[in-house]
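Hi all, long-time lurker, first post. I run a small reading group and we've been trying to get comfortable going from sequence to structure in the token notation. Rather than ask abstract questions, I figured I'd post a concrete chain and ask someone more experienced to write out its structure so we can walk through it together at our next meeting. Sequence below, copied exactly:
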Amino acid sequence: MTLPKTADSVIIGGGCMGASVAHYLAERGAQKILLLEREKFLGMGSTGRNAGGVRHQFSTEVNVRLSIFSLDVIARFEELFGISAGYHPIGYLFLLTTPGEVAEFKSNLAMQNRLGVTRAQFLSPDEIARLVPRVNLDGIIGGTFCPSDGLADPNSVTQGYARAARQLGAQIETETTVTGIQL
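-- Answer (accepted) --
Happy to help. Here is the structure in token form:
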């Protein structure tokens, strides 16, 4: 491994986020992209330690907009990157226990719907029981559910983005600890 003395873009961390940043920078024509990962393999940090939940249900516009873009990519990942993301749109259910949570989540739903997440919905306890018959509803006063939310394989997503980034000219180095940055 020979690290370049300079780079236009340096990405620290080779998980899903780092690999996707490298890919999208390269796709947009950026040059001299260097991704550095301290572990032996990509995706061994938080990417490799999560369940792979993907969802539209967020409380800020920027995260909802990012999720709309991201879930579209995840749903078409194999077509775009030649590897399945293992996407399973099984839905994502939030259970709410206080009137304050209900008000907050209803406000979030209005914003999500306005931005185009039209399948996200508020559910009463009876509707939750029909959706998930075995759920314990003690103390539950409502919930939100979006059927297009679900699970994806974080490792496959990381590897797909990394491979595409390399093909577009990004350099990716593992077993490289970053100890400082000079501008």
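A couple of things your group might point at:
The beta strands are 9-12, 33-36, 53-54, 92-96, 121-123, 142-146, 150-151, 171-173.
Residues 16 and 158 are 4 Å apart (CA to CA).
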